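BUG: 3D viewer hangs when loading the predicted structure for this chain

Environment: internal workstation, default settings.
Expected: structure renders.
Actual: progress bar stalls at 90%.

Input used:
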Amino acid sequence: MDNLLIEQIRPELTWRLRRGALYPEAPLHTMEMDEDNYGLHFGAFYPDKLVGVVSLFQDGTDFQFRKFAVDPQLQNQGIGLQLLQYISHFALAQGGERIWCNARLSATGFYSRAGFVQTGYPFNKNGIEYVVMEKPLI
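Structure tokens produced before the viewer hung:
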């Protein structure tokens, strides 16, 4: 998608989109994570509307991203890929060597196309199946 603007945002700006894309039945207040205070949060805007969000957490040279969400009405238009590339470049610039996530099984194809590989076995958390996917940055 052309003219997509990605920038760092406050954590509370991620909550509504997190819920809408990932947990539509959940109350909005449950989108806040204690870890939000320790991460960096990025938003994708098109043209002025927040259409994608992701939270990034650093542990040494490892960067984990969580709560990666794109507006359901705008998925499959390249927003997620641009946001993923942005945080990967950001992590690399911060000395990152690896970026990873707990990917929903339904999203593993997306991550595979972006160069991520599955590590480990699927696991269930709150009724959702996940698998760890990672990508070296160097």
